[in-house]
Design brief:
The complex is a heterodimer of chains A (773) and B (162). Chain A has 773 residues and is of the alpha+beta class. Chain A has 19 helices and 28 strands. The chains are: A alpha+beta (773), B alpha+beta (162).
Chain lengths: 773, 162
C-alpha cells in the first residue's frame, strides 16, 4: 500500500469544528420541551435515611415530578462486569433507599422546566438522615471490628485475589538483600473538562429510547441500560456526541443513564441532566486507591530475583463496571520490563464509604510501573549502584521476544535497551550526574529519575476481558466512490476520525478528504466495544484494515469480471484495479463502486454493493515501552520542585500519526505529574471529600509543567498487521515513577529513600529540615 | 428579584441583541441558551477552569461568574466570533496546525485567553505564554501543543494588529 498518509503528521479533520465552537457536546443538544433533572445527593458518607420529604419541592413552580428511590424500584442494579471468584456484589440502586454509603450518592431526582427551577426544587427537598460511623481508611475497613459498609455481608472484604508465578519463597531465600517498602497510590479525580451528562428521549409511538450520553462505550451502555430498564436492546439507541475527555471516567454505566431513560418514559418528555463539577468530584468514579507493601529479593549486583506485593484496594462503597478488575491489572504488569521469574501479588479489595474507584488513565498499570520502577531505585540505593545499571542488569533483552512473564503474559516484541540508550543520550545523563555532585556541595539538591517502563495495551483478547475485547468496523465505498467508515470505538479527543481515515486512504488510494469516519451512535454503527485501554487504533484500526481487505478481495472479483480476465491477473494499487501484465487496462475504485451498485454487469453469485463489516479479535495484548528521564531541583527553603529536564522516548509500535502520538504522550505525562506532585482526593475522617472542587484539587496548569523533549523508537507489534501497539496511557504509566524517582534522588542527602505521592512542597520541605548526611 | 425579568442590550460577535432575561441567569447560560451560541463551554461553574472565557469589552472574563444583566450595554466576543467570512482566525489555524486541540472542550476558552494575551503582548516568549494561559485548565494536551499553537499564531500574525 502507498504510504501517503500513514506515518505522517496529518492535522486533524476533527478540528475545524472544534476550534470554531461548532461541535456538539451533550449539553449543546436542544430538543423541544426538554426538561431538566437535578439530584439531591447524600451529604453524609454513611447514614440511614429515616425519611425524605419532597412535598415542598413538588409544589414549586415549574416542577413536573420528584422521584425517590421508592419510585425507581423497578430499575435494575447498576452493573459490575467483573466476575472474580468469590466477589461480593452489593445491590447498587440508581437512587438510594434506606441507606446512603458515600457523599454524593443520589437520593432524589427532581424534574423541572428549567435548570434553575430544578436546582431550587432540589434545595427544597428535605432528607432526614441518621448518621452512621463512616469507613474511610481501607486498612480500617479490613479490620475485623470495622463498621460494615454493606450490612448483608459479614465484612468489608469484597474479594481476595492472588497471582503467583515461579517460586517466590525460594527467590527470597536466595536473595542477598530483601528490600521492603510501603507505597501509597492515592485516589485521583479524573476530572475530564466536560462533566458527564445525559439527555433521554422516549418516543412512545416508536417505542424508542434515545440517550445522548458523554460516554466512551455507547454500545455497552445500550446493552446495560436495556437490561436495567427491561427494554429490548434494539429499541434503545445511545449516542455519544462530542465527548469532552474521559480518561476512564466515562468507561462506565452510571445510574443516571438508566434513571433519565426511566424518567423520560414516565413523563413522556425529553429530560436532561448535566453533571456539576462538584458532582463530578463526588459521584463520578475516582482512580487508583491502593495501599500496598512491596518486597523485592535482590542480589548484590542488582539482579531482582522476585517481587511480592500485598495490597489493599480501596474500592469505595459500590462496584462500578470494572472496579474490582483494576487491581488485577497491577498484578499482571508487576514485573515490568524485567526478567523477574518469581512474583506474588495478593489483593484484598475492600468496601469503604467513598465513591467507587475504577479505570482512570492507565487503570492499574501505573500502579505496577510505579512499584517496580521505585523498587529498582531502592535496589540501586541499597547497593549504591547507578539506577540505570540496575535496570540494565534486569531488562529483558531484545533476543528474548516473545517473552513469557512470570505473571503469565507474553510480551509481543521489544527492544528495551534502545529507548533507554536514546533517552540517556538526549538527556546527557552522565553530565547531570556530575552536575548533581557539584551542586550538592553548594547546598543545591538536584535529582535524576529514570523509568524504563513497559505497558499492556490494545485491550484485549476477549477471553481476558469482561465483555469482549474485539473491535468492529464497517467500511462502505459509496456509489460516488466516497468512503464511509463506521467504527465501534468511540473517540473523545484521540483523533481516530483522522487516523482511521489515514489508514483507509492509503489502503484504498484515495484522498483523505474522501473518507468519513462515523462513531458513537448505536443507531448508525454496528456493535462495538469502545475506547479505553489504549485499544482504539491497535484494535479498532485493525478492524478497519480487515474490512478494507475484505472489500478489496471482493473488488478484485468484480474488476476481473469487468476487465474480462481471471482474478489472478488483476492487481490493486493507488485506487485502481489493473491488469498485471498491462496496467493501462484498469478500472478505478470509484467506477468499480458505481458498477457494484448499478449492478448491471456482475459476476454470477456476486452480491451487489461494495461494503464490508469486520470484527477483529486480537490474539494477544500489545506491549509498548520506553524510557523517561526527569531531572529536578528541589528548593530547601520552600520544598518546591523545579523540573530542569524531561525526556520521553516512547515506542508504541508503528505510528499512524506522530502528531497525535505526541499529543497523547504530552497529556499523559502531565496527568502523571498531577499524580506525582499535586493531585489527591482527600477524604476526612467522616468521609467528606475535602478536595471536592477545582479550588481545592490541584490540576496541573501550563505554568506547572515542563517542556517535554520527545523522541521515539518504532518496534512494530507482531500481533496486528499494521504493527500498532497503542499510546493512550503511556504517559501516565511511564512518567509517574520518573518524576518521583527524580525527587527522591534529590533528597538522598537527607536520608530519604521513599516519599509517598503527591510530593507537595510542605512534605518535601519537612524532609529537608534535617542535616544532610 | 432573582426571577424578575429585565431587558438587556448586548452586542455579541458584532450582532446586537435585545433580550429579556431573569436577573439570576448567568451570562454563560444566557449566551448558550438564549443566544444559542454553544461554543462557550461550562466546565466548573465556579470560575476556576476557564472553559467559559469570553471577551467582555475586550477583556477576558469567566462568563459563569457573571449575571447576564451585568452585561447590559457590553460588547462580547465568543469563539463563534473569531472566524471572519468563513476564514479561521490565525489562532484557530494555529491550534489546528499544531494539534492544540484534543477533545476540544477547553479550546474556546484557550482561544479567547490567547487572543487577549496576543493583543497585550504580540510577541510573547514561551514562558509568557505559559503564564498567560495558566488560568485555563486543559486535561488532554499537557499544554505543550497549545503553547506551540499560540507561539505559531504570534509569529504568523507578526506586526499585524490582532
Amino acid at each position: 500500500m502507498a504510504q501517503k498518509y500513514l506515518g505522517q503528521a496529518i492535522k486533524r479533520t476533527e478540528d475545524p469544528k472544534l476550534v470554531s465552537g461548532l461541535g456538539h457536546f451533550v449539553d449543546d443538544i436542544k430538543l423541544p420541551d426538554l426538561h431538566n433533572v437535578c439530584f439531591v445527593r447524600s451529604i453524609h458518607a454513611h447514614a440511614r435515611i429515616r425519611g425524605v420529604d419532597t412535598s415542598l419541592a413538588a409544589a414549586l413552580p415549574g416542577v413536573v415530578k420528584v422521584f425517590t428511590g421508592e419510585d425507581c424500584r423497578g430499575i435494575g442494579s447498576i452493573p459490575c462486569a467483573s466476575s472474580l471468584q468469590g466477589l461480593k456484589v452489593p445491590h447498587h440502586p440508581v437512587l438510594a433507599r434506606n441507606k446512603v454509603r458515600y457523599v454524593g450518592e443520589p437520593i432524589v431526582a427532581v424534574v423541572a422546566d428549567s435548570l434553575y427551577r430544578a436546582r431550587d426544587a432540589a434545595e427544597a427537598v428535605s432528607v432526614d438522615y441518621e448518621p452512621l460511623p463512616a469507613v474511610v481508611d481501607p486498612e480500617q475497613a479490613a479490620a475485623p471490628n470495622s463498621t460494615f459498609v454493606h450490612e448483608e455481608f459479614s465484612d468489608n472484604v469484597a474479594y481476595v485475589w492472588s497471582l503467583v508465578g515461579g517460586d517466590v519463597d525460594q527467590a527470597f531465600k536466595d536473595a542477598d538483600r530483601v528490600i521492603k517498602q510501603r507505597m501509597i497510590h492515592q485516589r485521583l479525580v479524573p476530572a475530564a473538562m466536560e462533566p458527564r451528562g445525559v439527555i433521554a428521549r422516549f418516543l412512545p409511538g416508536e417505542k424508542e429510547l434515545t440517550l445522548w450520553s458523554s460516554t466512551q462505550i455507547p454500545h455497552l451502555m445500550r446493552t446495560q441500560v436495556a437490561i436495567m430498564l427491561g427494554l429490548f436492546e434494539n429499541r434503545v439507541r445511545v449516542i455519544a456526541p462530542e465527548v469532552g475527555g474521559g480518561f476512564g471516567s466515562k468507561l462506565n454505566v452510571y445510574g443516571e443513564e438508566a434513571l433519565l431513560g426511566f424518567i423520560s418514559m414516565q413523563l413522556q418528555k425529553p429530560v436532561k441532566w448535566i453533571e456539576t463539577r462538584r458532582e463530578n468530584f463526588t459521584a463520578t468514579i475516582q482512580g487508583r486507591g491502593q495501599v500496598g507493601d512491596v518486597e523485592i529479593a535482590v542480589k548484590s549486583d542488582g539482579r531482582v530475583l522476585g517481587i511480592r506485593y500485598t495490597v489493599l484496594a480501596d474500592l469505595g462503597a459500590y462496584l462500578q463496571l470494572l472496579t474490582p478488575a483494576i487491581p488485577t491489572l497491577t498484578g499482571l504488569m508487576l514485573t515490568g520490563a524485567y526478567r523477574i521469574p518469581n512474583v506474588r501479588m495478593d489483593v484484598t479489595g475492600v468496601f469503604t464509604n467513598k465513591v467507587a474507584t475504577d479505570a482512570y488513565r492507565g487503570a492499574g498499570r501505573p500502579e505496577a510501573t510505579y512499584i517496580i520502577e521505585r523498587a529498582m531505585d531502592l535496589a540501586a540505593l541499597e547497593f549504591d549502584l547507578d539506577p540505570v545499571d540496575v535496570r540494565r542488569v534486569n531488562l529483558v533483552s531484545k533476543r528474548e521476544f516473545p517473552y513469557a512473564t512470570a505473571t503469565g503474559l507474553s510480551y509481543d516484541s521489544g527492544n528495551y535497551e534502545a529507548p533507554l540508550k536514546k533517552a540517556l543520550k538526549i538527556s546527557q545523563y552522565p553530565r547531570w550526574r556530575r552536575h548533581q555532585v557539584k551542586e550538592r556541595k553548594k547546598g543545591r539538591y538536584v535529582g535524576v529519575g529514570v523509568s524504563t517502563y513497559v505497558e499492556i495495551c490494545a485491550l484485549g483478547p476477549s477471553p481476558a476481558m469482561p465483555a469482549g475485547g474485539w473491535e468492529s468496523a464497517t467500511v462502505r465505498i459509496e456509489p460516488t466512490g466516497k468512503i464511509t467508515i463506521l467504527t465501534g470505538v468511540s473517540p473523545h479527543g484521540q483523533g481516530q476520525e483522522t487516523s482511521f481515515a489515514q489508514i483507509a486512504a492509503d489502503m484504498l488510494g484515495v484522498a483523505l478528504e474522501d473518507v468519513l469516519v462515523l462513531h458513537g451512535d448505536t443507531g448508525v454503527v454496528q456493535y462495538g466495544i469502545g475506547t479505553f485501554g489504549s485499544r482504539a487504533t491497535a484494535v479498532g484500526g485493525t478492524a478497519v484494515y480487515g474490512a478494507i481487505q475484505k472489500i478489496l478481495k471482493k473488488g478484485m472479483l468484480l474488476a476481473a469480471h469487468l476487465l474480462g480476465v481471471s482474478r489472478r491477473e488483476v492487481q490493486f494499487r493507488d485506487g485502481k484495479f489493473f491488469l498485471k501484465n498491462d496496467p493501462t487496462k484498469s478500472i478505478s475504485l470509484q467506477d468499480l463502486a458505481l458498477a457494484s451498485y448499478t449492478a448491471r454487469k456482475l459476476p454470477p453469485d456476486f452480491e451487489p454493493g461494495l461494503a464490508a463489516i469486520y470484527f477483529y479479535e486480537p490474539t494477544n495484548f500489545t506491549f509498548p515501552f520506553g524510557t523517561h528521564v526527569c531531572v529536578v531541583e528541589v528548593a530547601r527553603e520552600t520544598g518546591t520542585i523545579k523540573i530542569l529536564q524531561y525526556v520521553a522516548v516512547d515506542d508504541c509500535g508503528t505510528i499512524v500519526n506522530p502528531l497525535l502520538v505526541e499529543g497523547q504522550i504530552h497529556g499523559g505525562v502531565v496527568q502523571a505529574l498531577g499524580q506525582a506532585f499535586m493531585e489527591e482526593a482527600v477524604y476526612d475522617e467522616i468521609g467528606q471529600l475535602i478536595t471536592g472542587e477545582f479550588t481545592d484539587y490541584a490540576i496541573p496548569r501550563a505554568g506547572d509543567v515542563p517542556w517535554m523533549q520527545l523522541d521515539r523508537t518504532e518496534t512494530p507489534s507482531p500481533v496486528n498487521p499494521l504493527g500498532i501497539k497503542g499510546v493512550g496511557e503511556a504517559g501516565t504509566i511511564g512518567a509517574t515513577p520518573a518524576l518521583v524517582n527524580a525527587v527522591v534522588d534529590a533528597l538522598r542527602p537527607f536520608g530519604v529513600r521513599h516519599v509517598d505521592m503527591p510530593l507537595r512542597p510542605e512534605k518535601i520541605w519537612k524532609l529537608m529540615q534535617k542535616e544532610t548526611s | 428579584m432573582p426571577d424578575e425579568l429585565r431587558t438587556i442590550q448586548v452586542t455579541v460577535n458584532g450582532t446586537k441583541y435585545d433580550r429579556q432575561v431573569r436577573c439570576r441567569k448567568l451570562l454563560s447560560d444566557f449566551i448558550r441558551e438564549d443566544l444559542r451560541l454553544v461554543g462557550t463551554h461550562v466546565g466548573c461553574e465556579h470560575g476556576i477552569c476557564g472553559a467559559c472565557t469570553v471577551l467582555f469589552n475586550g477583556q477576558t472574563i469567566r462568563s459563569c461568574l457573571m449575571f447576564a444583566v451585568q452585561a447590559d450595554g457590553a460588547e462580547i466576543t465568543t469563539v463563534e466570533g473569531l472566524a471572519r467570512g468563513g476564514q479561521l482566525h490565525p489562532l484557530q489555524e494555529a491550534f489546528w496546525e499544531n494539534h492544540g486541540v484534543q477533545c476540544g472542550y477547553c479550546t474556546p476558552g484557550f482561544l479567547l485567553t490567547a487572543l487577549e494575551l496576543l493583543q497585550r503582548n504580540p510577541n510573547p516568549t514561551e514562558e509568557e505564554v505559559r503564564i498567560g494561559i495558566a488560568g485555563n485548565i486543559c486535561r488532554c494536551t499537557g499544554y505543550q501543543h497549545i503553547i506551540e499553537s499560540v507561539l505559531a499564531a504570534a509569529a504568523k500574525m507578526g506586526a499585524k494588529t490582532v
